[in-house]
Write a structure and sequence with these properties.
There is one protein chain. The chain is about 70% helix and about 0% strand. It is mostly helical. The longest helix has about 35 residues. The relative contact order is 0.17.
Length: about 350
């Protein structure tokens, strides 16, 4: 079926018109440079600060197959910090991408995987595997990822069913259902954590639930590095349909969008990506909420631009946040969720205030 020719154009305020004058190509180029700078800083900064030139020397030697530099610098850069920085970029890109897709799916700019309970469902599935020991050995990572995906999919379906009761669709009801069900799932997750007999495991799971990239290794990157670009490709192929979906189901169906099938596909894609991300980083809130808003202000709401820019912006944001979380305190590392909550909660209150202002 041919893609609909209609694309969503939000009401143009003065600020909106100024923001949409920024060409998407220029915005992408600036964000790519910012990501490169953020990655360099992330690898350079830590308990042992390293000059950027030395960082790139280690990376260049590794990429060209030359012998690594002697001493501990190669271990610090290549084995510890580079995988973590790249994982932060992948997780941030995935969260920004899923946030943009979910907001189009539910037609609500206040939606994100965290507020809709999707992250809570993924966390419950992952923690159930970790605590109850239903996966082990070499299949442990696969088991956790699969459980997180099923938990995310189940939570999203439950939230959607509750919000659609009575046959209507109210975006505010969807958010409230997501918050309520997410809190219920989070409570059940806490119960599972308390059942864990190992005190060290309990502390580790609780820290992971608040968001942590401390376990990043090169092998950890494999699944996110495949899932996030694949999701971006799938969503970009449906960008025009997402634009039409923002104008309502009837309008989207009128221009040829198979609304039911599109929503089913978006359910699966967003749940899969959320499950993958939660499995490697825990539940990180507010990134998927903030990033699409920033990108809409920069280049408008057309998903052909919004999706890749959201991925780039999310990558930059989470690399910076993870660097702050690692280096803010001398004696310990902050959970990433603490930092994103400090940024995201005021942003959410601001967005709520603006929506109430405009009715």
């Amino acid at each position: 079926m041919a893609a609909p020719s209609t694309s969503y154009r939000p009401p143009a305020s003065g600020a909106g018109r100024r923001a949409r004058r920024i060409p998407a190509g220029w915005a992408a180029a600036v964000l790519a440079l910012a990501l490169l700078a953020a990655l360099t800083a992330a690898v350079s900064l830590g308990p042992v600060d390293l000059p950027p030139g030395e960082v790139w020397s280690v990376v260049a030697r590794r990429l060209t197959g030359r012998a690594p530099l002697p001493g501990t610098r190669d271990l610090i850069v290549w084995q510890l910090r580079v995988p973590r920085a790249l994982l932060a970029a992948l997780v941030g890109a995935g969260l920004g991408l899923v946030g943009a897709a979910v907001q189009a799916l539910v037609r609500n700019p206040l939606a994100d995987p965290y507020l809709l309970g999707i992250s809570s469902g993924a966390s419950l599935g992952a923690v159930a595997v970790i605590v109850l020991g239903t996966a082990g050995g070499a299949l442990a990572g696969v088991g956790i990822g699969a459980a997180a995906f099923l938990g995310a999919l189940g939570a999203f379906a439950l939230v959607w069913a509750v919000a659609r009761r009575g046959g209507g669709f109210a975006p505010l009801r969807l958010v409230l259902a997501g918050v309520g069900i997410g809190q219920f799932l989070a409570g059940f997750t806490s119960y599972l954590v308390l059942r864990a007999g190992d005190e060290r495991q309990t502390r580790g799971v609780l820290f992971w639930l608040m968001g942590s990239l401390g376990g990043a290794t090169w092998s950890t990157l494999v699944v996110p590095a495949a899932a996030v670009p694949a999701a971006l490709a799938v969503l970009l192929a449906r960008a025009r349909s997402l634009n039409a979906l923002l104008m309502g189901d009837e309008t989207a169906a009128g221009v040829g969008v198979p609304v039911t099938r599109l929503r089913r596909e978006l359910f699966v894609v967003t749940s899969m990506v959320t499950g993958v991300l939660v499995a490697v980083s825990g539940a990180i809130g507010f990134v998927g909420l903030m990033v699409p808003h920033v990108c809409r202000l920069l280049c408008g709401a057309d998903h052909r631009r919004l999706l890749p820019l959201s991925a780039l912006t999310g990558a930059v944001l989470l690399v910076v946040v993870d660097t702050v979380a690692r280096t803010a305190l001398d004696t310990q590392e902050l959970p990433i969720g603490v930092v994103t909550a400090l940024i995201g909660a005021p942003a959410l209150l601001y967005l709520l205030d603006r929506r109430l202002e405009h009715g």
